[in-house]
Amino acid sequence: LTSTFTHTHNDRLSKILEFFKDHVILTESFFLTEMDSRIQIANSLEDITDLSWSDQLYFYAAPIATRHPEAMEATRHFARGCPKNLVEIPRELLSRTKKGPPRNDRDIQRLESLHKILECYVWLSQKIGEEVFVDVELARGTMESISVLIMQGLTLLTKSTKSRMKAGEKRRQRQQQKQVSQNGGGKAKEKKYTIKQQDGKKKKRK
Question: What is the pLDDT confidence band of residue 58, given thresholds at 50, 70 and 90?
Answer without folding.
Answer: very high
